[in-house]
């Protein structure tokens, strides 16, 4: 049997490694609780150190809000995991498994892409001050240290300490982003499975070359089987609706902060990057960081758009379900379902802002508007 949690296992394993969430694949250990508390203290300490660099400070605050959402509502997150592993969401044939495996592979690649970006940013973040110092330029560190960092080797130790601390935080941050995006991507996959079930509602009867009208109207056993399939599809859809609404509710505050902070962070990063030499290490580091921030919000809006699109196509799949082969009583049932499906599933932030590509473009426009105001001489 295919493991439905496979699409999320790398994400939650990573969150457990960096101390951002509890262990969900095994028994919770007391040592891990202390480890998560230590990571939380380090994150708060990092916030105090980065006051001099506003765009990094806002990113750190964004991380803390997401940590709160994951840990304060950990029981609700576990309830969502239980739903993911429930019978309604499990694959029932090879096509279902293929869809879920494709989604798991896509989410794994997305997580690997972000981890690679974090690794590159870390190397550049550490390498820039070291190279700048080697060239004889004066370097200012953004953190406070109780010792003199102007000479070697204390300077190198301080740079590596800041780089590792920020990279660990970024590692956990992008993993939380990918996890939330994976929740929405899983909803999209479940909608695809639901659509497949409707499109192949009577396939097994067609294979037997049966008389549909006769079987549906007069054969009690086949009528009950078909009724159970329709009821199962409706329960599946209602479970998907609950799942999306629960994800939206759990991470509601985090997503509100995400939208406002990302717009300002992109603006501040642009403001800083335009003054840097084009081929400098710092410019490349900031450019990679800017790309991460822009893609960070994009994955939410991208998969939110996919969820809405798949939801809008459910009625089309019902129409393609060979409904002409069914009796009028079953046609009426499908018609009632189609009326329910007209209300599309659209993930939102603060119950107002839709997670869509249009919203993403609006955020970029707002960021550029703020940048033009700040950049006026």
TrEMBL record:
<keyword id="KW-1003">Cell membrane</keyword>
<dbReference type="GO" id="GO:0005549">
    <property type="term" value="F:odorant binding"/>
</dbReference>
<keyword id="KW-0812">Transmembrane</keyword>
<dbReference type="GO" id="GO:0004984">
    <property type="term" value="F:olfactory receptor activity"/>
</dbReference>
<protein>
    <recommendedName>
        <fullName>Odorant receptor</fullName>
    </recommendedName>
</protein>
<keyword id="KW-0807">Transducer</keyword>
<keyword id="KW-0472">Membrane</keyword>
<dbReference type="InterPro" id="IPR004117">
    <property type="entry name" value="7tm6_olfct_rcpt"/>
</dbReference>
<keyword id="KW-1133">Transmembrane helix</keyword>
<feature type="transmembrane region" description="Helical">
    <location>
        <begin position="283"/>
        <end position="303"/>
    </location>
</feature>
<feature type="transmembrane region" description="Helical">
    <location>
        <begin position="110"/>
        <end position="131"/>
    </location>
</feature>
<comment type="similarity">
    <text>Belongs to the insect chemoreceptor superfamily. Heteromeric odorant receptor channel (TC 1.A.69) family.</text>
</comment>
<dbReference type="GO" id="GO:0005886">
    <property type="term" value="C:plasma membrane"/>
</dbReference>
<feature type="transmembrane region" description="Helical">
    <location>
        <begin position="37"/>
        <end position="58"/>
    </location>
</feature>
<feature type="transmembrane region" description="Helical">
    <location>
        <begin position="250"/>
        <end position="271"/>
    </location>
</feature>
<keyword id="KW-0552">Olfaction</keyword>
<feature type="transmembrane region" description="Helical">
    <location>
        <begin position="158"/>
        <end position="186"/>
    </location>
</feature>
<dbReference type="Pfam" id="PF02949">
    <property type="entry name" value="7tm_6"/>
</dbReference>
<keyword id="KW-0716">Sensory transduction</keyword>
<keyword id="KW-0675">Receptor</keyword>
<dbReference type="GO" id="GO:0007165">
    <property type="term" value="P:signal transduction"/>
</dbReference>
């Amino acid at each position: 049997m295919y493991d439905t949690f496979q699409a999320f296992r790398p994400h939650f394993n990573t969150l457990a490694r960096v101390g951002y969430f509890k262990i969900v694949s095994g028994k919770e250990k007391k040592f891990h609780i202390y480890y998560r508390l230590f990571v939380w203290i380090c994150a708060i300490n990092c916030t105090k150190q980065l006051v001099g660099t506003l765009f990094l400070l806002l990113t750190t605050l964004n991380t803390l809000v997401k940590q709160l959402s994951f840990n304060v509502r950990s029981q609700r997150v576990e309830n969502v995991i239980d739903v993911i592993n429930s019978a309604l969401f499990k694959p029932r044939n090879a096509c279902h498994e293929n869809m879920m495996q494709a989604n798991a592979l896509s989410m794994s690649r997305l997580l690997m892409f972000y981890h690679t970006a974090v690794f590159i940013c870390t190397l550049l973040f550490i390498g820039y001050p070291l190279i700048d110092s080697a060239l004889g330029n004066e370097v200012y560190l953004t953190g406070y240290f109780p010792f003199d960092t102007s000479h070697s080797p204390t300077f190198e130790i301080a740079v590596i300490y800041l780089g590792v601390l920020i990279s660990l935080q970024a590692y956990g941050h992008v993993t939380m982003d990918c996890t939330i995006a994976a929740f929405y991507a899983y909803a999209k996959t479940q909608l695809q499975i639901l659509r497949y079930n409707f499109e192949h509602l009577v396939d097994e009867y067609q294979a037997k070359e049966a008389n549909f009208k006769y079987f549906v109207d007069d054969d009690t056993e086949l009528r009950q089987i078909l009724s159970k399939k329709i009821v199962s599809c409706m329960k599946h859809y209602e479970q998907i609706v609950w799942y999306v609404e629960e994800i939206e509710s759990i991470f509601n505050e985090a997503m509100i902060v995400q939208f406002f902070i990302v717009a300002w962070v992109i603006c501040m990063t642009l403001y800083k990057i335009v003054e840097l030499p084009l081929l400098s290490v710092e410019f490349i580091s900031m450019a990679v960081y800017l790309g991460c921030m822009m893609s960070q919000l994009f994955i939410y809006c991208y998969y939110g758009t996919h969820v809405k699109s798949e939801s809008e196509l459910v009625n089309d799949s019902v129409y393609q379900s060979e409904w002409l082969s069914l009796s009028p009583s079953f046609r009426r049932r499908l018609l009632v379902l189609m009326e329910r499906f007209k209300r599309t599933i659209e993930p939102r932030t603060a119950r107002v802002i839709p997670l869509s590509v249009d919203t993403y473009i609006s955020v970029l426009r707002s960021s550029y508007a703020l940048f033009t105001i700040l950049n006026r001489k």
